[in-house]
Amino acid sequence: QVQVVESGGGLVQPGGSLTLSCEVSGIIFSINPMAWYRQAPGKQRDLVAAITDGYRTTLADSVQGRFSISRDNAKKMVYLQMNSLKPEDTAVYYCHVERSEHWGQGTQVTVSS
Questions:
Q1: How far apart are CA 48 and CA 37, in angstroms?
Q2: CA dist 80 → 26, 42, 51 (Å)
Q3: Helix (H, G, I), strand (E, B) or coil at 108
Q4: Which of 17, 37, 76, 77 is least surrounded by CB atoms within 10 angstroms?
Q5: What's the rounded Cα separation, in Å, for the pair 30 and 39?
Q6: SS3 category, 31
Q7: What is the pLDDT of residues 81-95, one digit of tens each?
Q8: Backbone angles phi, psi at 9, to 5 degrees
Q9: Which residues on neighbouring strands pair with residue 40, listed in sequence order?
Q10: Strand 46-51 versus strand 34-39 pairing type
């Protein structure tokens, strides 16, 4: 049984930082590309960042220079480090095992003063 569990969301002021974590079980984690998506109210779910099994990363233009993605294969974890947060980063953030149907339940990130 595959489980994808996000954590680390919350309320943060503009300019602040948060780190999201995603723990995966039930798959051979190290061979799977992973990604973070986000969905704001009334909008589609968009890719934020992705990391391949070879640690190659991709970031959406809107978060370049502010966010970074990393993974720890030994712990079966993937992380999203978010810096210089803006109100427009407010969304539910989802972890996804790429090329699969496996999604986490999402974690809310709210950027507001």
A1: 5
A2: 21, 23, 10
A3: strand
A4: 17
A5: 26
A6: helix
A7: 999 999 999 999 999
A8: -70, 175
A9: none
A10: antiparallel
